[in-house]
């Protein structure tokens, strides 16, 4: 009868550490781009956006249980952040927090891109298969790009806070209704609103251009962050009107999804995530 032997604890630990080291090495190695040749980018238009959204809806319908499980946490996070803003006397950050969600939305949709990729190829789309892919070579560049968006989000909050300080601040607001009244009925309030929209537009435009196809590309191809970013910028540069329209669609959809206590994100985020994958497939040859 075959008997399994238990290895020395030291050798077992060494093997596990070696495995972790190899995974970490692959993650770090994946950040850089060994091949610097950019893929060809295509011209895309309104028809491509429509097709991407249709396919996004189909993916959501086919994978409904899995994707709802994946994104159910985000409405909870939004609700917790809103509660913190109220309780900490930081009501003025409530709108910047909500408006900044599109800045980190591409990171939230990583698993959705992989699901769409697998469904397109007829592969397994369960979470174990998805998570197995998002390791090693893919994990490093995705985390690096995610950190970049997190830094941009942090700078946006700092900018929004600074705008509030020089207009309606620095005294804290305990009531959202009072903040809205002052924002809409005073000259300082309108200055804050207009400056906030202007600065927020710049942040949103930057994130839109750098994340338009970069995250799906990192999952789909063995490229590093530099090539993924350069390709995303190339797509935006070749299709400025379509890129702007896509940004408007994403922003409006996310705003509508946030209105019922962020609950609409359970539907909006998956559809946009799947659609982003299909838009990438049309934009990059």
From TrEMBL:
Membrane spanning residue stretches: 67-87, 93-113, 142-167, 187-215, 244-272
Pfam annotation, one family: DUF2189
UniProt keyword terms in alphabetical order: Membrane, Transmembrane, Transmembrane helix
Record's protein name: DUF2189 domain-containing protein
The organism of origin for this protein: Paracoccus denitrificans (strain Pd 1222)
């Amino acid at each position: 009868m075959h008997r399994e032997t238990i290895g020395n604890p030291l050798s077992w630990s060494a093997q596990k550490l070696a495995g972790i080291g190899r995974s970490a090495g692959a993650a770090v190695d994946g950040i850089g781009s060994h091949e610097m040749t950019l893929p060809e980018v295509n011209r895309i238009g309104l028809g491509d956006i429509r097709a991407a959204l249709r396919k996004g809806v189909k993916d959501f319908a086919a994978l409904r249980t899995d994707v709802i499980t994946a994104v159910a946490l985000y409405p909870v996070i939004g609700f917790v952040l809103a509660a913190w803003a109220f309780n900490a006397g930081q009501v003025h950050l409530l709108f910047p927090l909500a408006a900044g969600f599109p800045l980190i939305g591409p990171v939230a949709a990583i698993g959705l891109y992989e699901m769409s990729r697998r469904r397109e190829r007829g592969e397994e789309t369960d979470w174990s298969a998805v998570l197995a892919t998002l390791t090693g070579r893919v994990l490093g560049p995705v985390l690096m790009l995610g950190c970049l968006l997190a830094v941009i989000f942090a700078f946006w909050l700092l900018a929004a806070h600074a705008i509030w300080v020089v207009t309606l601040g620095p005294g804290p607001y305990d009531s959202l209704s009072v903040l809205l009244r002052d924002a809409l009925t005073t000259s300082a309030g309108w200055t804050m609103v207009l400056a906030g929209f202007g600065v927020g537009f710049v942040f949103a435009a930057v994130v839109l251009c750098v994340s338009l196809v970069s995250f799906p590309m990192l999952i789909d191809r063995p490229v590093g962050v530099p090539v993924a970013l350069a390709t995303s910028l190339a797509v935006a540069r070749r299709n400025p009107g379509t890129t702007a329209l896509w940004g408007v669609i994403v922003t409006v959809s996310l705003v509508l999804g946030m209105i019922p206590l962020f609950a609409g994100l359970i539907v909006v985020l998956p559809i946009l995530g799947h659609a982003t994958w299909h838009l990438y497939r049309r934009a990059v040859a």
